[in-house]
Specification:
The protein is mainly α. The chain contains four helices and no strands.
Length: 98
């Protein structure tokens, strides 16, 4: 492994263990020019990773709230349907009594 890469990884407090693993895997398959480019642009790469992770976190939160809202609406619709059915059955019984 490249000692400069390892030093940069140690200095980076914003990376998760998964990020570190993936960076090492990419580094291993890159050709020499891409490795040099990665090392020379380390700060930019890390800031992009952080921004993308934050964007993904926000998108996940939005999707979660949309799913919760959808579930709540389905529950309300089901309650209304059950209520209407119950009320209809009661009216039908009353009609039969008359």
């Amino acid at each position: 492994m490249n000692s400069r890469l390892e030093q940069l990884i140690k200095e980076s407090t914003l990376l998760s263990p998964k990020d570190i693993y993936e960076i090492r895997q990419m580094f291993n398959i890159f050709d020499t020019n891409k490795k040099i480019n990665m090392l020379n642009n380390w700060d930019n790469m890390i800031s992009r990773i952080v921004r993308l992770k934050e964007w993904m976190r926000k998108e996940q939160e939005i999707l979660l709230w949309k799913a919760i809202d959808s579930i709540e609406k389905q529950i309300e619709n089901a309650k209304m349907s059950w209520y209407k059915k119950g009320a209809w059955d009661e009216l039908s019984q009353l009609k039969q009594m008359i």
